[in-house]
Design brief:
Length: 144
C-alpha cells in the first residue's frame, strides 16, 4: 500500500524478530490492509502459533485468497485450523468451496460447519432463484 517493497521488508523483519503476539497480529493486519496475499499465505503455512496462524488465514480470506485457502485446506491436519479455512472461504464469498468440502471432507466435525456456512453465504442467492422460479411458473400458468 504505502512504502511498497521497503514497507513489506520492514514488516517481515518486524514479524520475524518479534516475540510479542500483539506485534505479530498488527503485522498480519498490515498485510491484510495492503492486500499482501503472498505474505499472509506464507504465514498461514509456516506459523507455529495456532492463534496467529488462524489470524493469517482469516485475513487471507478477507483479501480474497481463494486458491491459497484451497491449498491450505488440502494440506492442513488440524480440525480447528481447517474450520478457520472454511471461515476464510466464507469471508472471501465463495460458498462453492464450502459445499465441496461438505461433500468430500471425511471429518464428521467439519461437515455440518460447511453446510451451515454455505447456507448463510448462499441464502440470498437461493432466495432470488426460488423467487425467479415461482414467478416463471406463475407466468407459465397465466399464458395457458
Amino acid at each position: 500500500m504505502f512504502g511498497g517493497n521497503r514497507a513489506g521488508s520492514a514488516l517481515t523483519a518486524i514479524y520475524t524478530n518479534s516475540q510479542d503476539a500483539g506485534v505479530k497480529r498488527a503485522v498480519i493486519q498490515s498485510y491484510m490492509m495492503s492486500g499482501n496475499r503472498e505474505q499472509l499465505f506464507k504465514l498461514a503455512k509456516s506459523e507455529k502459533d495456532e492463534g496467529l496462524k488462524r489470524d493469517a488465514i482469516r485475513n487471507l480470506g478477507l483479501v480474497g485468497g481463494l486458491s491459497e485457502l484451497q491449498q491450505l485446506y488440502q494440506s492442513e491436519p488440524s480440525t480447528d485450523v481447517r474450520r478457520e479455512i472454511l471461515q476464510g472461504f466464507f469471508l472471501a464469498g465463495d460458498s462453492s468451496k464450502m459445499v465441496q468440502a461438505a461433500e468430500t471432507d471425511k471429518d464428521p466435525e467439519l461437515r455440518p460447519h460447511c453446510h451451515t456456512q454455505s447456507w448463510a453465504n448462499g441464502q440470498k442467492r437461493h432466495a432470488a432463484i426460488n423467487l425467479r422460479e415461482r414467478n416463471r411458473s406463475w407466468l407459465e400458468r397465466r399464458s395457458v
